[in-house]
Amino acid sequence: MPLPQKSERKIYQILVRTHKTTLFFTVPPSTTIKYLKEQVLSALNSGLSEEEGIPIVKNVEDFDLCRCRVIKGKDQKTYDVLEQTESTIKEIKLTNWEVLYIQFKDEEGQSLEIMATDPPIDDDEESKPLHSSPTIDKGKGKRRAIEDDDEYSL
What share of the chain is helix, strand, coil (3-state, %, to 5)? Predict the structure, then answer.
């Protein structure tokens, strides 16, 4: 029996990162990179630039959207600028939940270093239980009595 074919994705979640901020966009696959840059510009100009040292941008030429590429065998990342602004998300083969990065430009139009902090994968804090139990678990087997239980024993 043949497997059913996957239907084409109707909506994409695209994440755009800069500094310690992540912007979330829900867009159809026919969205162009130009339109996505306009949406990023709108978000940056909505007061976001005032926070965390994000540079102020006036138009879409003040920044580029980049895709991160990890070089295998090395602990190194490179960023490829998405230059085909008329291309759609589907045409350049962005995936659902793809993370793009903002590369700002200086006054002369030269690209600056990408300043983005990826969130940690593991929490540094130990996970705390949602509720505490009155028993002390020392492994498999019968429940061990705790000191308070001795006063109730017969």
Answer: 15, 30, 55
